[in-house]
Amino acid sequence: MSISRRLMLCASISMMIVGFGSGAFAADFGTAEEAKAMVAKAAAFYKANGKEKFLAEASNPKGQFVDRDLYVVPYSIDGIRLAHPYNQKLVGSSVLDAVDFDGKEYGKEEVALIKTKGSGWVDYKFTDPTTKKLAAKSFYVEKIDDQMFLGCGVYKH
Q1: Same domain, yes or no: 48 and 2
Q2: The domain spanning residue 93 has which CATH number?
Q3: pLDDT tens digits along 126-155
């Protein structure tokens, strides 16, 4: 085999390895569509099983509302965190006081979005629980009823 053919073969194999590797890496993180689907799944569970069972499940870091870097956080309609699978210290605190590392008051934006549109996306920076690094995050929020809204975020890697 000629040197040029060997180089072409090596280059092709390298591109395939990089391509497969990046695909596997991407699968390690949730997508915007998966975040919205997780919120829909959580809302259905809440409606079928009631608030108490739902909040217990939403607090479980190994529960059905945690998938890779995706996790659902329920809030009262006024922005009080009702459960959190990774940080129990946040439960009972208001998201209205939440400020990201750049000073953005994302909690106020979430509650305003719920009260005006009922659902949507809020962008801010937060620590990714899987990598433990600061990352850009898009957080999908959706009003479930007059008492509660849910959120699930996507980290931008």
Answers
A1: no
A2: 3.30.450.20
A3: 988 888 899 999 999 999 999 999 999 999
